[in-house]
Amino acid sequence: MFTTKQFNVFTQDGLDARMSGIRADIQPLFHRIYDEVGPQLEADVGIPLYLHVAKHARRTVNPPKDTWMAICHDKRGYKKHPHFQVGLFDDRVFVWLAFIYEMPNKEAIGKRLMTIDFKHKFPDFHLAGDHMKKEAFLIEETYSASIDAIVERFATVKKADFLIGRQLSADASILQNEAAFLALVEDTFGRLMPIYRELVL
pLDDT tier at 61 (50, 70, 90 boundaries)? Predict the structure, then answer.
């Protein structure tokens, strides 16, 4: 599904060239992913969900370092709500349940996230605290205190995010097997669905 063609888009110099590559080589894959996983995700949630594809509209000079699709219950926008993401940097693909800094009720959501035993429930998942950076931590290799610190920072720091899911290296063989990758996306979102349902419904 994802090959060197998609990752090489991020080697394109200049905003126009890179955006052209994103539109031609990456965004059609986002629509394909949504067509495959969206119906089941919507059935699991029990309410309509909508696809949002990053437009990078605020950029006027610097080309984006990553791009993504988001799935959310709000047709008008996703950034103020928990949402599911699939996207990529130049060297990895990410599959997240994302809580980003634009959410208005971060403190309350952070308190709820603090009650989840991530080490027990999601040892093979990654955590991240900034959706604009690549850095992520494998939960089974992360101290519980460090996980708590990421959640607390999300709740208390204005620009902090909280993301949980999976990151896959660009050379991971599963990325070239469409059926296997879509199954992994469905599995990731399915395991995170109880958190989404509790915080959205």
Answer: confident
Q: Domain containing 49: what range?
A: 4-200
Closest by CA position to 121, among listed 98, 95, 140: 140
pTM over 0.70: yes
Identity of the amino acid at 171:
D
10 Å CB burial of residue 64 (0-12, 13-18, 19+) is middle
Output phi, psi for 54, to 5 deg. -55, 130
Domain count, the chain: 1
- pLDDT at residue 152, as a whole number: 96
Residue 93 is part of a domain; what is its CATH number?
A: 3.30.930.20
Indicate if the alpha-carbon torsion angle 190, 96, 114, 118 is positive or negative: positive
